[in-house]
Amino acid sequence: MMNLAHRGASEYAPENTLAAFYKGLEMGASGLETDLRLSRDGIVFLLHDERLERTTNGTGRASEYTWKELQELDAGSWFAAAYAGERLVSLETFLHFFARKPIHLALEMKEEGLEEDTLRLLAKYGISNRVTITSFQQGILRMVRRLDSAVRIGFLVKQYTEEILAELKEISAQQICLTAETITKDGVNRLKAAGLEVRAWRVRDEALMHHCLECGVDGMTINFPDKLTEALRRVL
């Protein structure tokens, strides 16, 4: 079971910061999930939103700033004073700290244009076999597959359709990521029979977490990895 700390342990620390990632691992996560964007000068870095206001003291579109400018922002104070001074993290820094650990990394590509640099960094750190690249955009996944025939890819969707399953087969995807509230035991069994891993996302509370466990998912992207760690310990 993949217990992936969603943007780190984002219920307990500011998302997509080193503090959140380390806390996720301390809480028993078997992997980390994060989001990839591109700075104005072409640096791949970790941020969920297109804009800066929600999770930093910056304003405007992140893509309008150089990486040097983005590094000067405070990415922790919005969450709690104790995290004042936390910084945005580049993908290279993220891999420097976590690629050598025996964990899985889930990288969601939020925009086009960063596929080649991301794959280059994964190869540099020798972690391509322990990464799943995901996106809501089929075009991004197609580009990733054109560039790398072996890296694991997964499609983020709210609900699956026959057309989506055909698309996943065409690009040799390994994983489908569904919103927790749409997951059913029959659906999971069908997707697994089609050769796909099933990962739940938007696991908003413990009730949904237990529902996904009962349905037999292969993993979850979760804000509170400690609670999933405990639930898995009781099951085992």
Structural summary, described in words:
- The protein has an eight-stranded parallel β-barrel with strand order 1-2-4-5-6-7-8-9, surrounded by four helices.
- The mean pLDDT is 97.
- α7 (185-193) links the parallel β7 (175-179) and β8.
- It contains nine helices and nine strands.
- With 236 residues, it is α/β, with parallel strands linked by helices.
List the total number of helices. 9
Radius of gyration: 17 Å
Please report the total strand number as a whole number.
Answer: 9
Helix content class: 25-40%
- Describe the main β-sheet briefly: 8 strands, parallel, barrel
Strand order of the largest sheet: 1-2-4-5-6-7-8-9
**Poorly predicted tracts of residues:** none
Mean pLDDT: 97
Determine the structural class based on helices, strands and strand pairing: alpha/beta
How much of the sequence lies in strands comes to 15-25%
What distance separates the N and C termini? 11 Å
Pattern of helices and strands: EHEEHHEHEHEHEHEHEH
Global morphology:
globular
